[in-house]
Amino acid sequence: MTSVEQAILDALHELDATVKSISKTEPKPNLVSIFERIDSLAAQLPARANPDLVHYISRRSYEKARLLLEGEDAKNARGSCR
């Protein structure tokens, strides 16, 4: 895993944890900053990056991207856009 992929995975974990805690948190967290960081990191991926990862992130399929980066891509159900 590249350092950019690891940073994306870290941001995806942060997003997941933040979303799970949203009902218990006041004031509500700003998810936009996490989305912007993921977008910024995705823009740093090299041209040879895994096309599934690029696809998942561009479609905002963050759970699928997380599973792919964790080596669990087999758990991803294929969508109709393939």
Provide structural commentary.
This protein has 82 residues and is mainly α. It has one domain (3-71). It is 59% helix and 0% strand. It is built from four helices and no strands. Helix 1 (3-21) crosses helix 4 (62-69). The radius of gyration is 13 Å and the shape is globular. The model has no long low-confidence stretch (mean pLDDT 91).
Name some characteristics of this structure:
82 residues, 4 helices, mainly alpha, single chain
Secondary-structure blueprint of this entry?
Layout: H1 3-21, H2 31-43, H3 51-58, H4 62-69
Helix pairs in contact: 1-2, 1-4, 3-4
Strand content: under 5%
* Unreliable parts: none
Say how many strands there are. 0
Number of domains: 1
Shape: globular
State the share of residues found in helices, binned by percent: 55-70%
Distance between the termini: 25 Å
- Calculate the mean pLDDT score and round it: 91
Largest sheet: none
Radius of gyration: 13 Å
Q: What's the tally of helices?
A: 4
Provide a brief overview of the structure.
This protein has 82 residues and is mostly helical. It has one domain (3-71).
